[in-house]
């Protein structure tokens, strides 16, 4: 005999972030799944900016994105860490 539990189901959604974004990290673009390399990180007018280069596409233009805070860490909007199992 199976017992069915009736109750509310909840799903907690958290933005994936890393404790520290560093040059050399790999990030995956959410919509295309392309891999990007962090080539530069700098501060600009109270914001932290990151320059990303598509992996294997040295001839293409680099992408500049503003870093956002996510809980105790940081995230790049539209991207997720490509090495999710590693702690940065």
Q: Would you write up a description of this structure?
A:
The protein has 88 residues and is mainly beta. It has a single domain (1-88), classed as Roll (SH3 type barrels), CATH 2.30.30. The protein is 0% helix and 40% strand. The protein is built from no helices and seven strands. It has strands at 26-29, 35-44, 47-54, 63-66, 68-70, 73-75, 79-81. The strands form two sheets. It has a five-stranded antiparallel sheet, with no helix packed on it. The chain has a two-stranded antiparallel sheet with strand order 5-6. The chain is globular. The model is unreliable at 9-15 (pLDDT under 50).
Structure at a glance:
This protein is mostly beta strands. 0% of the residues lie in helices and 40% in strands.
Descriptive tags:
single chain; mainly beta; SH3 type barrels; five-stranded antiparallel beta sheet; two-stranded antiparallel ribbon; 0% helix
Helix and strand run: EEEEEEE
At the fold tier of CATH, the topology name is SH3 type barrels
The whole-angstrom Rg is 17 Å
CATH architecture heading = Roll
Please give the structural blueprint.
Layout: E1 26-29, E2 35-44, E3 47-54, E4 63-66, E5 68-70, E6 73-75, E7 79-81
Antiparallel strand pairs: 1-2, 1-7, 2-3, 3-4, 5-6
């Amino acid at each position: 005999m199976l017992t069915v539990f009736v109750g509310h189901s909840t799903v907690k959604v958290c933005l994936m972030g890393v404790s520290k974004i560093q040059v050399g990290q790999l990030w995956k673009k959410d919509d295309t799944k392309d891999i990007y390399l962090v080539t530069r990180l700098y501060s600009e007018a109270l914001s932290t900016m990151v320059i990303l280069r598509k992996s294997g596409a040295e001839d293409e233009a680099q992408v500049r994105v503003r870093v956002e805070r996510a809980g105790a860490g940081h995230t790049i909007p539209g991207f997720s860490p490509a090495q999710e199992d590693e702690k940065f």
